[in-house]
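Consider the following assembly input.
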Amino acid sequence: VVKTNGERLKASLLSMAELGATEAGGVTRLGLTDTDRAARNRFSDWATAAGLKVRVDDLGIVYARLEGTEPTADPILIGSHLDSVPFGGKFDGTLGVMVGLEVARILAESGVCLRRPIEVVDFTSEEAGRFEPAMMASGVLAGRFTPEYVYSRADRDGCTYGAELERIGYKGSPANRVGKIHAYIEVHIEQGPALEAEGLPLGVGEGILGMIWKNVTVTGQPQHAGPSPMRSRRDAMVAAARMISGIRDLALDYPDPVTTTVGRVLPLPGVINQIPGQVIMSVDVRHWSTAGLAELSERAEALMRRIAAEEKVDAQIEQIWRIDPTVFDPRLVDLVESETRRLGYPYCRLTSGAGHDAKYINEIAPTVMLFVRTVGGKSHCETEAVHWDDVVAAADVLLSVVHTLAQEAPLR
Amino acid sequence: VVKTNGERLKASLLSMAELGATEAGGVTRLGLTDTDRAARNRFSDWATAAGLKVRVDDLGIVYARLEGTEPTADPILIGSHLDSVPFGGKFDGTLGVMVGLEVARILAESGVCLRRPIEVVDFTSEEAGRFEPAMMASGVLAGRFTPEYVYSRADRDGCTYGAELERIGYKGSPANRVGKIHAYIEVHIEQGPALEAEGLPLGVGEGILGMIWKNVTVTGQPQHAGPSPMRSRRDAMVAAARMISGIRDLALDYPDPVTTTVGRVLPLPGVINQIPGQVIMSVDVRHWSTAGLAELSERAEALMRRIAAEEKVDAQIEQIWRIDPTVFDPRLVDLVESETRRLGYPYCRLTSGAGHDAKYINEIAPTVMLFVRTVGGKSHCETEAVHWDDVVAAADVLLSVVHTLAQEAPLR
């Protein structure tokens, strides 16, 4: 039986963490920078050394392929992304690429004959830390964006995605894009506290929450704090405050992982002795079902309208973004679950609150995710951490799942 | 019977409003600027032309004196301040100086013989728009500040109060300070909506609310909005929101004019998909009695501590400012009330929520204020407005009160 080389996997992750390392132990490795190129080069060198064949497509996606005994069969795709947010952590997407590479290395070394090719993938610029929106490369594969749109996206300095892709030498051929995918399995840190709270190393991903973002402008009457009687005030901040706590309470009516969050709150003029005449704030609503998302969003709007009327203020509510919930392939979810159980790793099923390339790939191929317990639930920060045993557990499960899938006839 | 010259009073106010006029119909006339000098000069010229004797003390306070038949008797002080906040209104303090000047002009013209001298006063830099804290000149008269402290205060460009006072030629002699004051009566716009709401032109000031300012730092746990279950969050913004609405509700337990206000709220990091880990906010508490102020302040703190515990966040509460309530001289309050009633002007008694030079002068002399209805309750803004009839009413009452007081033997 082939087994994960935990030491090599850890060494690979720590070696990658050198590229863009921050003083506080994190990583800044924005997409299509020199640092990103260095990470791509290192990944490609390791893959080549392991006997994999590396190719790059027109979106800069790097594929490291372990050939199967039936080279024309649809491949098993495993991986994630090597880029990070500014002052992010050592793991996030890199974990998924390195776990994928480790699985391919083990399989290559073992000489096991698999019917299907295995491709370890590094999706370009998953994060929105430099180019927005996030996940554009996988989005093109799913037909959500055109390459022309993606190439034209510019960072804050005006550098475009297309020009930067050429500059770092990672603009490949459209012919190199992956075609029909037999299955995509993405390993990723959980980025939340649920697994840690339950004492579980792994989480079997069932899907990704749908999300609605709103921009809310509450307008009352700015006045001096002193001479304005309480009962005649139209205080935009008090109204916004009641909305914020009310929207939180709404989410408590639902089981996890449904969430509502108000992250941005800007009262104007924002001085100590003035009643705020206006508050601009954001509302983030997430739910695993399309109907649930619509219901929670509508309840939040109704609550805001009711409070606005009670506080005699105006509330302009604008929906600025919406993504539907993602439901992963049930057969793959069952397979990942059964292999996790068979290997004896404690786990639960969970729905991710964050976006991943798996979201877009799920639209064109059977997809599933496997989540790794995240210390303190902290991610996108320099103190992001995992337990090494959990990483090895994820690699073991992935290895086992890939081994099973690679022998299969086409699923679809 | 002598009567206010309403046309002249209106013309004086509109003439003053030319100095520092803003495009939107307001006034920017910060203390000790060239614009302030122009206003002082215009006031002095008008006073001199009316037969008053102008002098300036070491704080730049301008006194325009109408001599009495007993020149050694303590004077009646009337007036306010000519400076404004940035993009302030045409009235605010200027109204009190111009009404005072009108009263002195009328008395001078009428040839009425009064025992006591009348001094129309322009207190230097009442607003904190340029030099902080506010009301330093009257504060020196009350012994709250030393002249050295006041001279050393610098504006944002590093210009000091002392240097600017000399530069505009208004640094006079300490010997010119007013000595013992028989009574001080300050006319001012209400700056709130109470009189307008009641349909009353005038308000007889009973005092000024005491005030406590707090700085509150709420600290929870910053996390991603998506993968963080509602029940394990330590959301500083939700905690702050509950505090803000709770603190508002506390004030509703009290009759007007008790107030609480949260004007400044800063969530960190303040982005749409992050649970705020910290919120920094202000709390402004006002009450007319010392005991009431302490009680309301303590209730607000207890409420914040309780909510912090419930939301599993930390709340650091710091008291950054406190001023005791001011209670004006009861005999002067009664006198202003009886003269207002005798002249047939509808009025109510009220306690001001805003600070005024009358606050400090009240500590050294019998003091009272008379408030003028403010259109829409708006002040410290370019659309600040009054009804001309109300201004004439205030001048009539002041004239009558001054006439009575100027014949009196010393009150204290």
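The first strand of chain A starts at residue 53 and ends at 56. Ask yourself how this observation constrains the way the partners meet.
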